[in-house]
Design goal:
alpha+beta, Jelly Rolls, 60s Ribosomal Protein L30, Chain: A, eight-stranded antiparallel β-barrel, seven-stranded antiparallel β-sheet, 37% strand, cell outer membrane, Galactose-bd-like_sf, Sad1/UNC-like protein, OmpA-like, membrane
Length: 403
């Protein structure tokens, strides 16, 4: 996987992931215009590619990626994003830290809509971006109103006819009400890594994609997806993606060996076209069979607790089925956390959570002699703990076959 995706990057030279609504007291600190918080690019008048220089790059929270227009398209631009919730935007940021030159935007307007990506639109605020590098923070001084869709209209840049570029958009404010993401958005998609299937079963998700016989297994709240991906020859990594409310587009990032590698994006296939791959009936068994390791994002626990949530049942059942079908397998259940909290606390929490999974399997008919458990805390990250995306992927349970 890294070979193709590294080439794309060269162009520019849930274990608790709480899906519940954030309390209003914390809303002001949340960047709603971020993949991890469910933001999705709906459209862009121009973008250099569908990956690391797309409009998704500007909501990735990672300055390794930058939105660029197509070459020789440095004129006025419009980017439309959908948020996971309705939000009264109180301030927003246009970060030009890595574009302190004529490509940086100069002036424009941020619009909001509560109705659809087509509007009707109301002005949130006009903006003038400083010519120097840095985070340009704009407070909203007029009447606040709820928006689900944001439209950045860039009227001019600082002189480049070739490109306009932005490192990052951010948006902060208070959530208004709660939108439940309970629609099954299963289907076939065309992605920048070939055609793919995404199949939802409650909070559990499996899938596959045609590039390198790729497979996916993970969990979702109906808006945000966390995956383990595997490819042939054997390669393993993780990914986090957000999907639009109508299931038409998705965008996210993928990681390998703990490092972010690139942007993963796609749109729903129409006209009868389908991927060649077929999703596995038990992706956990497939991962253990081929890689001796399965990363499980669908095992959820109560906050600050080792108590299993009911939403963990589908993934636990897949794990049990895999062990039932392979009575010769013995496995170690490994618990992992992000870096929030102390090392000692995280080690203890991950150990108790791994033990809870073992206890569930043993109480559901798996011989305890085949099972061991161990917590690793934050010591073996799957991704970088410096970003919210990375921390979300580090909260996980892994199953490792004994050799």
């Amino acid at each position: 996987m890294i070979t193709l995706k590294t080439r794309l990057l060269a162009i520019n030279a849930f274990i608790l992931l709480s899906f519940a609504a954030t309390a209003h007291a914390e809303d002001a600190a949340m960047d709603w215009l971020n993949i991890t918080n469910g933001a999705v690019l709906i459209s862009a008048t121009s973008q250099y590619d569908s990956g690391s220089n797309s409009g998704i790059a500007a909501i990735s929270g990672n300055n390794r990626f930058t939105w660029y227009t197509a070459e020789n398209d440095g004129g006025p631009q419009t980017l439309i994003y959908e948020l996971a919730q309705r939000v009264m935007i109180e301030r927003f940021v246009i970060d030009t830290s890595y574009e302190a030159n004529s490509r940086a935007p100069k002036s424009g307007t941020l619009w909001g809509s509560e109705v659809s990506a087509a509007g009707p639109w109301k002005v949130i605020r006009n903006f003038e971006v400083d010519s120097g590098a840095g985070r340009n923070v704009f407070s909203v001084t007029g009447e606040l109103f709820a928006s689900r869709w944001l439209k950045f209209e860039i009227k001019s840049n600082w002189g480049s006819p070739q490109y306009t570029a932005i490192t990052e958009f951010e948006a902060y404010g208070e959530q208004v009400g709660t939108i439940e993401h309970d629609t099954d958005l299963s289907g076939a998609f065309n992605s920048n890594y070939e055609k793919m299937w995404l199949l939802m079963d409650g909070t559990d998700v499996v899938g596959c994609y045609d590039w390198q016989n790729g497979t996916l297994t993970g969990d979702t709240d109906g808006r945000l997806f966390r995956f383990q991906w595997t490819e042939k020859p054997p390669q393993i990594g993780s990914a986090i993606m957000a999907i639009s409310s109508d299931g038409s587009v998705f965008g996210g990032m993928f990681f390998e060996q703990g490092e972010v590698q690139g942007i993963w994006s796609g749109s729903r296939l129409t006209g009868g076209s389908k991927p060649n791959c077929q999703p596995k009936t038990n992706s956990v068994e497939d991962a253990l069979n081929e890689n001796n390791r399965a990363v499980l994002y669908g095992i959820h626990f109560d906050f600050d607790s080792a108590k299993l949530r009911s939403s963990a049942a589908p993934t636990l059942k897949l794990l049990k089925q895999a062990l039932d079908s392979n009575p010769g397998w013995a496995v170690e259940i490994q618990g992992h956390t992000d870096s929030d909290g102390t090392d000692k606390y995280n080690l203890d929490l991950s150990d108790r959570r791994a033990a809870s999974v073992l206890a569930w399997l043993a109480s559901n008919g798996i011989e305890q002699s085949r099972l061991t458990s161990k917590g690793f805390g934050e010591s073996v990250p799957a991704s970088d703990n410096s970003s919210s995306q990375g921390r979300a992927l580090n909260r996980r349970v892994e199953i490792v076959r004994a050799q």
